[in-house]
Amino acid sequence: MNQALMISLLRKLVNLMSKFWTVFSHTYLSKVKSKSFIITTAIILALIVLMSNIQSIIDIFDSGEADQLAVVTEQEEIYSQLESRLEADFELEHFDGTLEEAQDAVGNEEYIAVLDIRESEEGLPEATYYSRDYTNETAQNLLESQLQQVKVEIATNQSGIDPAVIASIYEPVSFENELIATGDREVSEVKTEEELNGARGLVYVILFLLYMAVIMYGNMIAMDIANEKTSRVMEILISSSSPVSQMFAKIFGIGLVGLTQMVLLLGTGYFVITQKQDELVGGVFDFFGLSDISFSTFAYAVIFFLLGYFLYATLSAMLGSLVSRTEDVQQLMTPVTFLIIAAFMISMVGLGMPESTFVVISSYIPFFSPMVMFLRVGLLDIPFWEVGLSILLLIATIVVFAIIGAKIYRGGVLMYGTSTSLKDFKKALQLSKKE
Amino acid sequence: MTLKLDNVTKRFGSFTAVDGLSLEIPEKNIFGFLGANGAGKTTTFRMILNLLDQSSGSITWNGEKIDYSKSDEIGYLPEERGLYPKLKVRDQLIYLGKLRGMQKKEIVDELSNWLDYLKVPQYMDKKIEELSKGNQQKIQFISAVIHKPKLLILDEPFSGLDPVNVELLKKSVVELKNSGTSIVFSSHRMEHVEELCQYLCMMQHGKPILHGDLREIKRSFGKKNLSIQADFDLSFLENIPGIVKVKYFGDGVLCQIENEDVSQRVLEEISGKGFIRRFELDEPSLNDIFIEKAGESYE
């Protein structure tokens, strides 16, 4: 290669990079400085702070005194047994008076309810629960089950059975769980219970983040492009730098906007939780159950998150370039939204049964794999080739979409009209070709 | 630095938008592009700018193919106004200028010079949507020329402007030409082209129907305009051989004649018939030529 050619190629590359950088930073800065971004982020931050302090806020409004529940009974023994067994957020009080007086007291809101305990002909306890309405079912159920136990104890005593027999009847069965070493793996490689719980937590977090990111930032990309078409500034833009580099500058720029927002949110969340550290046992990761996750699961989380974002972002950019009015963006984005909802649903089902064939198949379909394959990697022990294949398929799809997307983008940005059908894809492709 | 189009054709499916267009646009000149709506002007511009690929033929600038590495040397003012409505003039131009390879400081200096020149310095920090259409057009114009392009493409630059501002922009277009910019400029306002351009191309249904030096075109057209004002009836002129068309105005006529010699015959015919107020032999206007040429290709 001769020197002149090298220099001209180098100049082209520098030119391309500087244009890319200009579009990238313009996209990022104009979005981050926009009112809607600042307001949305502020509201979510306020919500996070509010939610994490919810207990303190409730305490402020709470009188601090526990509710009282009146018990009318002549059976001192039963009352004391019931009281000693009960662990609840209300207190029992042995009411000194008739049932009618107790009921009146409930009417005056001195008690939340009245429990009338009598002795049956067999010498066993019987009860009636009087309350104003059916809203406090918890208290009722709690009292019923405790009284049941008291009754069992009294009945056993009466029949003269050895309490040890009763105890052995109620003792839970011994049920242990052991793993078998198979040919190709050691038992020690199987995910432990703790790892699995941690992974489940992380899978939840990533699924939600990806779902939110795709819906929010995918729309943002499509909107941004449609906006530039509506204002017709697009024609000037693509006459000064290549549409392909613009498309990717937008995808990366808005990706960074998303990253900024997530770092802000997660950072605030982290800060708020560490501030309340004394209320927590263990660290922040324990709080989310994330302390027992292996490094590879974290690595996969990042890989699948990024690939998922790029897949849907490329798709959104392509669709955004097809519409000429921002009003039409929603219409074209609906199928994309359905895809991501489907992926989310499959992974929600998959959390319960990650080994079902349905989930396994979905984990190779590129639109679903960022969520579903990550779920499988997180919860199961999957041979590396399976994950690798899924990642390769995903990358290949992204590349194909990027190539088609870039072509459609180039033709689509010159296309103006109201229709938003599949024919537009063909038209846009045609415009970017020679004939 | 010539822009050369060689047998350029653009087809959209079965529709041919530009058909075998060959042009040579000399440097440091204003080249006029004429044509009715849908004649293929904008498509040609988009091909020159590399926004569309031509189906066949070649387009070269200074002997090289135009691609994005040359975009810093090219300025473009599209027919439709295209600016970010919500951005301030300053931020808008900084972004568009950077995309043409300029530095921020350079852009702001140039911008304030241009705003002063176009007598709207107060718009520096206004949003585009707050400006009137004409003033938006001025900003659009600045965005096309701020980076001192070597090749400038202006698609209907004067639409939506009042006569004072049209003059202002015309003046700056001429100044740009004098400072060495090659300008391609389209319009369906014949008088603008006549005034500014030395070379032109007239398009009809994607085909060039006239092409070359303006004076040459007028001369080779042959026909001249003869306007006569007299106190007597001039309708007998219609029967004089060599007179192509007669158009009546208030107290006079405008005849199109086949060549200069016919005028002398007419003069002989009318002399002595009465009082003649005016007898004037004129070059044909571009408008006449366009109407005739466009009409021919319709037949």
TrEMBL record, chain A:
The chain crosses the membrane at residues 37-58, 202-226, 247-273, 293-312, 332-351, 357-375, 387-409. Pfam families: ABC2_membrane_3 (PF12698). GO terms for molecular function: ABC-type transporter activity. It is found in: Cell membrane. It comes from Gracilibacillus orientalis. Residues 35-406 form the ABC-2 type transporter transmembrane domain. This is ABC-2 type transport system permease protein. It is a multi-pass membrane protein. GO terms for cellular component: plasma membrane. Its main location: membrane. It comes from the Bacteria. The keyword Nucleotide-binding does not apply. Keywords: Cell membrane, Membrane, Transmembrane, Transmembrane helix.
TrEMBL record, chain B:
Residues 3-230 form the ABC transporter domain. One of its GO terms (molecular function) is ATP hydrolysis activity. Pfam families: ABC_tran, DrrA1-3_C. Keywords: ATP-binding, Nucleotide-binding, Transport. SMART domains: AAA. The keyword ATP-binding applies. It comes from the Bacteria. The keyword ATP-binding applies. InterPro entries: AAA+_ATPase, ABC_transporter-like_ATP-bd, ABC_transporter-like_CS, ABC_transporter_ATP-binding, DrrA1/2-like_C, P-loop_NTPase. Belongs to the ABC transporter superfamily. This is ABC-2 type transport system ATP-binding protein.
